[in-house]
Amino acid sequence: MTSSPESPGTLVLAGTPIGDVSDAPPRLSKELAGADVIAAEDTRRLRRLTQALGVTPGGRVVSYFEGNESARTPELVEALAGGARVLLVTDAGMPSVSDPGYRLVAAAVERDIKVTAVPGPSAVLTALALSGLPVDRFCFEGFLPRKAGERMGRLKEVADERRTLVYFEAPHRLDDTLAAMAEAFGTDRRAAVCRELTKTYEEVKRGPLGELAKWAAEGVRGEITVVVEGAPEKGAESLDASELVRRVQVREEAGERRKEAIAAVAAEAGLPKREVFDAVVAAKNAARGGPSEGKGLS
Questions:
Q1: pLDDT reported for residue 293
Q2: pTM (2 decimals)?
């Protein structure tokens, strides 16, 4: 697989199993055997993986983890520039997703070096699919800060986020994190704690954040991914027609024109102006005992 020295090599980001080794992509074995350099987050785990796959690495193996990522990146870029095929693997999942890799990818792109991937298992997508929560729109938030104040600040930043949220968390911090989420998002916000995905003791615990926080207080082990329901549309679920009408009346009594009052209430409730207008017209007709008016907003 070695590239010609006259042209730059290729950086290959390879997904590795997040639990069950049989989930390894078929191409992974080929890349492990043929790469000129294998950069591994943990060389001991890499050795166990290659033994399980029955593969003998064909190139040299170097460590590439958080502690030496900055220092080792230039070395790997030079190898790539010289025509080498460099394979990057992390302990589990896809490189650069809350794992080493971003710096190397950015540096390779800067040098116009080809970057490709061997798609593989992802704890983010697996947990999202198993959560039972909406999957049409989501955002990945990675690990939260360890300090309580910083963690709460980060959570409050996304308290109104409508998309489903996905987090990684260490088992010994899970209870504190869920308690903080319950405080920031509300105890009734739905969530799922996904533990030991694809492994023997896989478990998905679903429920309101308040209940999950109490459950986690007893202690939880294993690799953890937390999926949290997005925030509900502001006001859309809590304000019925009579409340919309009341708010419009309050504004009218304060001197606002009905058109402006309806627009303001609609904005507050996160609703179309037509819906608030229809509620006002219906209330007016009900008071008169007459049929619904067909006039539009002007």
A1: 47
A2: 0.74
Paired tokens of 165: 């949220």
- Which segments in the chain show pLDDT lower than 70? 1-6, 234-238, 290-298
Task: Give the C-alpha distances (Å, rounded to integers) separating 46 from 49, 52, 119, 157, 290.
Answer: 5, 10, 17, 38, 77
User: What are 164's strand-pairing partners?
Assistant: 138
d(CA 196, CA 225): 9
C-alpha 88/C-alpha 16 separation (Å) is 10
Residue 103 CA to chain centroid, in angstroms? 20
